[in-house]
Amino acid sequence: xxxxxxxKFDVEAFLASAGPGRTIVNLQESQTLFSQGDSADSVxxxxxxxxxxxxxxxxxxxxxxxxxxxxxxxxESLSKAGVLHTATVTSVTGCTVxxxxxxxxxxxxxxxxxxxxxxxxxxxxxxxxxxxxxxxxLFNSSERRLAKTxxxxxxxxxIDESERLIPAITEERLAELVGTTESTVSFFxxxxxxxxxxxxxxxxxxxxALLNVILHDQLPGDNTAKPVIEDLPQIQ
Length: 236
Prior knowledge:
By secondary structure, the chain is of the alpha+beta class.
C-alpha cells in the first residue's frame, strides 16, 4: 500500500490566512497592538501597513524601530510561557496583522523547516537593522536619518521605479522615528520639497533621487543652511 505524500507546506499561505490558532486583526492608525508589560502569549505577523516599536522607562518613550509588512512582532512570547512584552507596538497607518498563538507557532516551527528558517532569518535581519539604526543615531546626521526613514517607508522594490507614494504621516511621528525634534524634521522636509526629492501634500511622494542624501550625506545646492534647533524668542 502506497503511503500518501505529505503536501508541501506553504509559508506564505500560512502567514496570509486565519486558521487554527491564527486570527486576523485589523488596526486603525494609532491603535496599540500590545503594550510593554502585557502578557506575551502570541506572535504577530504584519501583513499590511506600518507600525512602530517603542520602549518606555521613567516616563520617557523611545522609538526602537519602524515596522513594515512582512515583519514579526512579539517574538519574546516564544521564550517561555508567562513572559511579558518588553515593548509596545503601535500602528502608524491602518494595519492588517496575523495573530499566531504561542502553541501554534511553536508547533508549526517544529514541524515546518521553511517557517523556522523564515522566522530566524527575520530575527537576524532585525538585529542587524537595529544595530545599524543605533549607529545612525550615534554618527549620522538628522538629515540622513530622515531620508533613510522615508526611503524605508517607500520600499522601492522595483529598480525601475523612480518614485513611490507613502501614507500621510505627521512630522511629530517622523521626529519620533528619526530621533530628532519636530522643527528639524520640518526644516528638512521643506528642503527636500524645494529640491524636488519629495512631494509633500497630504501623502508623501518619495523620489528615488533621495538616495543621494544617504549616499553622500548632503543635499545638493546650498548646504550652509541649518535647521533651527529650538524655537527661541528673538532678542531685541
